[in-house]
């Protein structure tokens, strides 16, 4: 689960991690009030920042500096409601429905801090780089040696000596080291206690009066841990997510929308990835990732069909099931019921293997519906690609 920058900074404040002062606004009136308050407090610069779940906002025109109230109001008017396009939103962009009106900072240096779970080592890794303000992926690709890492033993936690090592590698002044240790320790505590999967401070800045601030913050949470964090779950902004993905989450379906024409329904994430690959290999393109899981029931299957059919780009449906926990006959009956109930008109191609596979194939054959069944994944993928192209 993703959250906005202003929400992430509120979390950091609770862990004594210093961030600039600011207020969120959803209307121009609120933005004007916030800007007046910041200028009235003696700030010479106010920053107006678009709040969307994507990076690259500044390059897309979603971050503007203002030195007067008039400039701040003009920036708010330009950004609020705009369709902001960045490298992470895709060409359609994302509508800006919230702003963060924030005090300006006298930046001396821009650095980078980040925490992420490293699956290879099964540990959280704390990363730091002097290349703040840049896309960390670009830094990792071009100059990986400029990213410093400290792996954290989960039984011990993030030790002060590790924070000091990172602080010295960042080239911080000796007078800033102790503050940096407190800053990083607060970040790690926030990461662990909120069940985060990613926490990035980019840029992590030093100011001309030697202060340390999180100028920007990105936090992603583990969806599977949200039952422990009802307060965090309430931070979810459904307007920032694809409507079909939101709908799928209501039925415990793992769905991600893509831009292809062949809808996929698969049980198991690994098989789902393989299915998308073989569709691409056969000359087609997947319209989604959809894992119905091992314990799917008929209701979930029907709901999954409804979600797949809601995508106007879908020209064919490819169902690839290896029945283990989810028996093939249960899946087949669910498919038949859903196809009849929803009046499915587009071609449905299936590849079925596993428990009760013969019973499942008989259910399909006796349904009176025009299903196509491939004996192998390749055969089924070829059928799906041909169907999506109009049988050519």
UniProtKB/TrEMBL annotation:
Record InterPro entries: ATP-grasp, ATP-grasp_succ-CoA_synth-type, ATP_grasp_subdomain_1, Succ-CoA_synthase_bsu_CS, SUCC_ACL_C, Succ_CoA_ligase-like_bsu, Succinyl-CoA_synth-like
Pathway(s) served: Carbohydrate metabolism; tricarboxylic acid cycle; succinate from succinyl-CoA (ligase route): step 1/1
Keyword entries, A-Z: ATP-binding, Ligase, Magnesium, Metal-binding, Nucleotide-binding, Tricarboxylic acid cycle
Catalytic activity: GTP + succinate + CoA = succinyl-CoA + GDP + phosphate; succinate + ATP + CoA = succinyl-CoA + ADP + phosphate
Binding site for substrate: 267, 324-326
Chain residues that bind Mg(2+): 202, 216
Its biological purpose: Succinyl-CoA synthetase functions in the citric acid cycle (TCA), coupling the hydrolysis of succinyl-CoA to the synthesis of either ATP or GTP and thus represents the only step of substrate-level phosphorylation in the TCA. The beta subunit provides nucleotide specificity of the enzyme and binds the substrate succinate, while the binding sites for coenzyme A and phosphate are found in the alpha subunit.
Protein family per UniProt: Belongs to the succinate/malate CoA ligase beta subunit family.
Protein name: Succinate--CoA ligase [ADP-forming] subunit beta
Gene name in the database record: sucC
């Amino acid at each position: 689960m993703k959250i906005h920058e202003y929400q992430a900074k509120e979390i950091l404040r609770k862990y004594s991690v210093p961030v600039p002062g600011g207020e969120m606004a959803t209307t121009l009136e609120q933005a004007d009030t916030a800007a007046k308050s910041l200028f009235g407090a003696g700030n010479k610069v106010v920053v107006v920042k678009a709040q969307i779940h994507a990076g690259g906002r500044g390059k897309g025109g979603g971050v503007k500096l203002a030195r007067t109230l008039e400039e701040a109001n003009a920036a708010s008017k330009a950004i609020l409601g705009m369709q902001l396009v960045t490298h992470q939103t895709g060409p359609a962009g994302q509508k800006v429905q919230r702003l963060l009106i924030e005090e300006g900072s006298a930046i001396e240096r821009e650095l980078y801090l980040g925490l992420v779970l490293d699956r290879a080592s099964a540990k959280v890794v704390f990363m730091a780089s002097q290349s703040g303000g840049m896309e960390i992926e670009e830094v990792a690709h071009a100059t990986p040696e400029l990213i410093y890492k400290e792996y954290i033993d989960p039984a011990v936690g993030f030790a002060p000596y590790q924070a000091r090592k990172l602080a010295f590698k960042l080239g911080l002044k000796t007078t800033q080291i102790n503050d940096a240790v407190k800053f990083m320790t607060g970040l790690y505590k926030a990461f662990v206690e909120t069940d985060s999967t990613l926490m990035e401070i980019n840029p992590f800045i030093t100011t001309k009066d030697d202060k340390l601030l999180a100028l920007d913050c990105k936090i992603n949470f583990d969806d599977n841990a949200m039952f422990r964090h009802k307060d965090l779950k309430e931070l979810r902004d459904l307007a920032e997510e694809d409507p079909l993905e939101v709908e799928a989450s209501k039925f415990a379906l793992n769905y991600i929308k893509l831009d292809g024409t062949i809808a996929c329904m698969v049980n198991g994430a690994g098989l789902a990835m393989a299915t998308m690959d073989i569709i691409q290999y056969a000359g087609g393109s997947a319209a989604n990732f959809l894992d119905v899981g091992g314990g799917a029931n008929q209701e979930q299957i029907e709901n999954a069909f409804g979600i797949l059919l809601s995508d106007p780009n879908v020209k064919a449906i490819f169902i690839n099931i290896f029945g283990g926990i989810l028996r093939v006959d249960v899946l087949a009956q669910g498919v038949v019921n859903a196809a009849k109930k929803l009046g499915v008109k587009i071609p449905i191609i299936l590849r079925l293997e596993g428990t009760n596979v013969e019973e499942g194939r008989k259910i399909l054959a006796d349904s009176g519906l025009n299903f196509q069944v491939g004996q192998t994944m390749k055969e089924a993928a070829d059928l799906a690609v041909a169907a999506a192209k109009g049988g050519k």
